[in-house]
Structure formats: structure tokens, C-alpha cells
Write a structure and sequence with these properties.
It is globular, with a radius of gyration of 19 Å. It has helices at residues 2-12, 33-36, 53-56, 75-79, 83-88, and strands at 43-47, 107-114, 117-122, 128-132, 148-155, 163-170, 175-176, 183-184, 189-198, 204-213, 222-224, 227-231. The strands form two sheets. The chain has a nine-stranded mixed β-barrel with strand order 1-2-3-4-5-6-9-10-12. Strands 7-8 form a two-stranded antiparallel sheet. A hairpin with a 5-residue loop joins strand 3 and strand 4. 12% of the residues lie in helices and 29% in strands.
Length: 246
């Protein structure tokens, strides 16, 4: 029966998250994503800026798009960037969408919203990302800053166990890849991998590898890898609203 179900899902083009594939011994119910997690991503994390410092810690100059493979269609938009106009239009969150939010310096608070939905809140811009491990729970609707994200676990094959989280995001509202107006369109899609790595001092790093594809404004995937360091508690959590000028 399980083979038949898998064949039907494959024919329908549906992705089955890794967390939902395994059955418990004895025919018991499938474990939830939270129960099946090979790593624990929950807690408070702070940006650990190890790359692109000049583009993340300060607002880059207008027209600066080095290291991003933009198409010719993106250049006029980049050169016309006007943060005051974004503010007036209520678009001050354009650089806080899923395409850039993990690069915005700040803190993350990762929790389980429910047994099959991982939640990431950001203090920068007050954004919330929901990673759903069942595609059936993803709501349809208009594009949003954080889009719709479907997640699944990838288990390590080595003797030490562990694994990583993979996330695919679409249905994005058009936003900025950097604070200075480098655009991505509503046709953009993202793939992310979340991994943990120990630090020599006993601390823990969250490593996020992100590839953004956009047939409108990118001629190749744009890949970034922001890092976060685990904090002991939420005493430094400091939510701030979106700002078009920082």
C-alpha cells in the first residue's frame, strides 16, 4: 500500500517531506516534524557576520550591485532606488522579505508553532517566517514578504547522526536583495539549507546556505551563507520596525 501511495504522489508531482516518509515500528502513526527532527534549531540566535560585511552592516551606496548577477532589466531599478519614496509608499519592508531577511543583522527566535510548522521571528523588521513540513497546510493567496515555505529534514548518513533542514520558498512579494534597492521579482524562488556547527569555545553556529533564482532580475542563482551564533536566552531580543533607510 505504501508503494502505491508513493507512486500516486510521484505522478501528481507532490513533494513528500522527509519527516513524513518514515513510519514508526509496529505500524504506529507517522512522527511529526518536531518529533522527527535530527537537529534542534530552536532558541535565540544573533547574526555572526563573516561575509559581505560592507553590504550588510551599512547601507551600500546607490548603484552598488557587485557580487550579485543582475540582469540588464534590474539596472534601471537599481539606479532609480529612492528610499524616501519606498517609505511614502509603505514599502519600507522591501529589504526585509525572505530574499534578504537572513542577511539583515539582528536576532532570530526559532520555535515550533505547532508539531509540523517551524517558526522564525526576526527582531529586525518584526518579520515571521513559517516553515511547513506538510504542503497541505500551506495557504494559497497573494504574494507576501515571506512567501510560502515548505520544509523537510535531511538526515546525515554518518555514524554521528545529525542532519539539516531544507526549505523551498515561493509566492514572494517583490523585494530587495540588498538595502540599496537591488530587486527580486514575484517570480523569484529560494532554496535554503540550515545546518549546525560547534564552535571551539563550546558555542553553536547556525549556518544557512541560500540560493535565490529569479528569471526576471537574476542571470544566475545568487548564493549567500549568513551565520548566526546561539544565545543563552532572549535577554537581548529587541524588535524594531522595518526601515527603508536603516
Amino acid at each position: 500500500m505504501r508503494r502505491c501511495v508513493a507512486a500516486v504522489l510521484a505522478l501528481c508531482g507532490l513533494a513528500v517531506p522527509a519527516a513524513l516518509e518514515a513510519q514508526r515500528p509496529g505500524g504506529a502513526a507517522t512522527p511529526s516534524a518536531r518529533e522527527a527532527a535530527p537537529i534542534d534549531l530552536t532558541g535565540y540566535w544573533v547574526s555572526y557576520v563573516t561575509e559581505n560585511w560592507r553590504y550588510r552592516m551599512v547601507t551600500p551606496p546607490k548603484g552598488e550591485y557587485r557580487r550579485i548577477p543582475v540582469t540588464p532589466a534590474a539596472v534601471p531599478i537599481i539606479n532609480a532606488w529612492d528610499p524616501a519614496a519606498d517609505q511614502r509608499a509603505g514599502d519600507q519592508c522591501k529589504s526585509y522579505g525572505a530574499g534578504n531577511i537572513m542577511n539583515v543583522p539582528g536576532r532570530l527566535h526559532i520555535t515550533w508553532q505547532d508539531a509540523d510548522t517551524l517558526r522564525i521571528d526576526t527582531d529586525a523588521g518584526g518579520q515571521t517566517r513559517l516553515f511547513r513540513f506538510s504542503a497541505r497546510t500551506a495557504p494559497p493567496g497573494a504574494p507576501t514578504w515571506q512567501g510560502v515555505s515548505t520544509a523537510g529534514w535531511e538526515r546525515a548518513t554518518g555514524p554521528d547522526g545529525g542532519g539539516s533542514l531544507r526549505v523551498a520558498t515561493s509566492n514572494l512579494r517583490a523585494g530587495y536583495l540588498r538595502k540599496n534597492g537591488i530587486p527580486y521579482s514575484e517570480r523569484a524562488t529560494m532554496s535554503e539549507h540550515f545546518d549546525l556547527a560547534p564552535l571551539p569555545d563550546g558555542g553553536l553556529l547556525l549556518l544557512i546556505t541560500t540560493a535565490i533564482e529569479d528569471p526576471v532580475y537574476l542571470r544566475a542563482p545568487y548564493v549567500v551563507s549568513p551565520h548566526f551564533k546561539k544565545e543563552p536566552d532572549g535577554s537581548k531580543w529587541d524588535p524594531t520596525p522595518c526601515s527603508s533607510t536603516w
